[in-house]
């Protein structure tokens, strides 16, 4: 039982996570090096920039997150933002129904 | 054994009827509908047969087969089968039955040869799918279902008006290329656009899909939007405007996806983003682009279904899918975790996974068509997809910090459905010919070459690097319990509040004018018998009246 638990908690050990990250960084480096070794086909002028895809991917995601964080300031509301109004609508409808039934 | 020229929706509708009476293990019988129906279509289809049902004034063309409708036909059988296996444990006759009707209606719409038949199935899609939302049986789901239904039915009504106007102009109800050139075509375009979740018309999707039952969302994600993509490909292929709409659709939802907490809503936004690629492909309109759009629809149904299935499994076991309160689930749901990663890799277009072999067709067609800046937008969206769907979904649900949740692994039937979907994702990604042979237009695209594989890996790995870096710097936005305002704000907040304000003002006005009139009436001399109205008084008043009337008559003469 305890062995299973040890195994299951693989990602809780900082050592394991660090190893995974090191492998990941190594792959990133290799991919950039390959860009200078392999002859890429160029279809669009942007692609002539060395390691264009790597740079673009990184910058795109940082820009994405930065803008999204700014959007939060404008767009974020409490979880139950819509609820009070809709609850009110439901309540009025509930109050309406018995009325309607009485009339009949 | 096989029945030739059987409209493919019929097995599903029969099974839906059956679903009302079977329970327990007998529910497995329902799986026969997609299996037998799919095989029947495969063995007996012929391109020249047209099945019609004569009505009083004209014939409904229930089945018209070509390679385009056939591809979507196969796709919907696969999607129906996966969704049915996934939901076979659900002991709710309403859901089982409406799910089958819904899948059948999608098939009906795809094989329909005339606009009236399309309209019938178009509305059936709306009427049946809404029960998958209502089946959640909560107040919020009830309201979300209502909003969903209103918008969907509106789309159908616009479609019918547009189609009838087209009939008036051309004398034909056949479904075929339209092109944007008249008011009628714009109506059809908007009707399709609503179902395809064009920007500003998209909130029905992000509003309702996360509200449906765990199994219901799997059905929903497969059919409605893909029927719209099919219809767009048939009627508006090569329409320049679609390229711009599609590019917008790929980009704007990913910002929302990054800050959204409900992980099924994240997937709903990412569904719009994937639709954007398809719409772009349809807009370009070359054989490569259209093939790309259709191929991506095919793959998207499977991998997006897979992702919704994994989140449905979490919802089923945990009771919610809020990123802020999940984490560490890989310990208790390891198989679901693996399936989720397969889905995430597919949607991010990792080499050897299905997204890679279809998304790139649209990208390549974009360059061929000379839209370099739009191509950059699509590339941005590709990086963004990996960021929010590829990393965020698995990371916040299954890894991240341990939330302490200890649940059971997903039910076996759910695991089987997710397993089949995963195998399909990897099989199509590794042997793209499996799917390419179904493509309607001539195809010579080769997805695997050194350039494409290397550049895609660079893009994805450095997107992941950005995620790691932002997280280490503490810059990554934390998952927060919140709602983000979107277009739905207009009809969930602004319109009700404005409506309430206007009706309040009108009520005040009514009360005020009533009191004014009452006061005026009071001020009038009263004609009670006790007033002792004399003949002289009456005569005087009649004289005044006469003068007034003469004056009015005079005025009338002058003007």
Molecular structure report:
The complex is a heterodimer of chains A (104) and B (559). Helix content of chain A is 73%, strand content 2%. With 104 residues, chain A is an all-alpha fold. The longest helix of chain A has 24 residues, at 14-37. Chain A is elongated. Chain B is mainly α and 559 residues long. Chain B has two domains: 1-235, no CATH class; 237-485, no CATH class. Chain B is 70% helix and 2% strand. Chain B has 21 helices and three strands. In chain B, strands 1-2 form a two-stranded antiparallel ribbon. In chain B, helix 3 packs antiparallel against helix 9 and helix 3 (67-87) runs parallel beside helix 13 (287-318). Chain B is globular. The model of chain B has no long low-confidence stretch (mean pLDDT 92). At the A-B interface, helix 2, helix 3, strand 1 and helix 4 of A face helix 6, helix 11, helix 16, helix 19 and strand 3 of B. Strand 1 of chain A pairs antiparallel with strand 3 (483-484) of chain B, so a sheet runs across the interface.
């Amino acid at each position: 039982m305890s062995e299973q638990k040890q195994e299951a908690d693989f990602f809780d050990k900082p050592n394991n996570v660090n190893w995974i990250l090191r492998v990941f960084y190594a792959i990133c480096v290799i991919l950039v090096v390959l860009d200078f070794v392999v002859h890429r086909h160029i279809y669009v002028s942007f692609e002539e920039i060395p390691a264009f895809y790597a740079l673009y991917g990184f910058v795109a995601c940082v820009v994405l997150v930065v803008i999204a964080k700014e959007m939060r300031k404008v767009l974020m509301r409490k979880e139950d933002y819509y609820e009070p109004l809709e609850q009110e609508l439901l309540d009025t409808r509930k109050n309406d129904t018995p009325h309607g039934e009485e009339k009949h | 054994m096989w029945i030739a020229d059987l409209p493919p929706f019929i097995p599903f509708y029969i099974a839906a009827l059956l679903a009302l009476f079977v329970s327990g293990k007998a529910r497995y019988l329902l799986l026969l509908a997609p299996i037998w129906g799919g095989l029947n279509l495969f063995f007996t289809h012929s391109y020249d047969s047209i099945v019609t049902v004569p009505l009083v004034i004209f014939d409904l063309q229930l089945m018209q087969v070509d390679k385009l409708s056939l591809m979507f036909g196969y796709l919907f059988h696969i999607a129906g089968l996966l969704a049915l296996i996934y939901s076979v444990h659900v002991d709710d006759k309403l859901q089982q039955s409406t799910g089958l009707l819904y899948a059948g209606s999608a098939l009906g719409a795809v094989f329909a040869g005339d606009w009236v038949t399309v309209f019938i199935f178009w509305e059936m899609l709306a009427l049946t799918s809404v029960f998958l939302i209502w089946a959640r049986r909560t107040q919020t789901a009830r309201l979300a279902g209502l909003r969903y239904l209103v918008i969907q039915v509106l789309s159908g009504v616009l479609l019918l008006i547009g189609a009838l106007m087209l009939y008036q102009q051309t004398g034909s109800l056949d479904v075929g290329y339209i092109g944007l050139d008249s008011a009628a075509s714009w109506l059809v375009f908007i009707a399709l656009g609503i179902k395809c979740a064009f920007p500003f018309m998209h909130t029905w999707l992000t509003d309702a899909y996360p509200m449906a039952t765990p199994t219901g969302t799997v059905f929903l994600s497969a059919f409605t939007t893909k029927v719209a993509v099919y219809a767009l490909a048939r009627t508006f292929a090569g329409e320049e405007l679609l390229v711009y709409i599609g590019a917008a659709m790929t980009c704007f939802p990913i910002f929302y996806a990054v800050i959204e907490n409900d992980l099924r809503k994240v997937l709903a936004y990412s569904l719009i983003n994937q639709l954007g690629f398809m719409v772009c492909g349809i807009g370009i309109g070359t054989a490569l682009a259209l093939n790309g759009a259709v191929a991506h629809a095919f793959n998207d149904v499977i991998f997006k279904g897979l992702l919704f299935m994994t989140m449905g499994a979490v919802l089923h076991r945990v009771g919610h899918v809020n990123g802020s309160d999940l984490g560490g689930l890989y310990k208790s749901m390891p198989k679901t975790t693996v399936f989720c990663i397969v889905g995430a890799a597919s949607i991010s277009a990792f080499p050897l996974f299905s997204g890679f072999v279809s998304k790139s067709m649209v990208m390549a067609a974009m360059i061929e068509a000379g839209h370099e800046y739009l191509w950059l937008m699509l590339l941005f969206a590709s990086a963004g997809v990996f960021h929010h769907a590829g990393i965020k979904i698995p990371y916040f649900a299954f890894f991240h910090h341990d939330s302490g949740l200890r649940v059971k692994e997903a039910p076996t039937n759910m695991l089987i459905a997710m397993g089949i979907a995963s195998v399909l994702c990897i099989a199509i990604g590794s042997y793209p010919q499996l799917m390419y042979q179904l493509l309607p237009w001539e195809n010579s695209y080769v997805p695997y070459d050194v350039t494409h594989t290397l550049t895609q890996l660079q893009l994805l790995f450095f997107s992941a690097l950005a995620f790691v870096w932002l997280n280490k710097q503490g810059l990554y936005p934390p998952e927060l319990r919140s709602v983000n305002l979107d277009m739905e704000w207009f009809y969930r907040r602004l319109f009700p509040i404005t409506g309430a304000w206007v009706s309040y003002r009108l009520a005040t006005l009514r009360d005020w004018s009533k009191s004014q009139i009452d006061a005026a009436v009071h001020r009038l001399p009263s004609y009670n018998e006790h007033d002792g109205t004399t003949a002289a008084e009456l005569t005087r008043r009649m004289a005044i009246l006469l003068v007034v009337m003469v004056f009015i008559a005079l005025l009338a003469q002058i003007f």
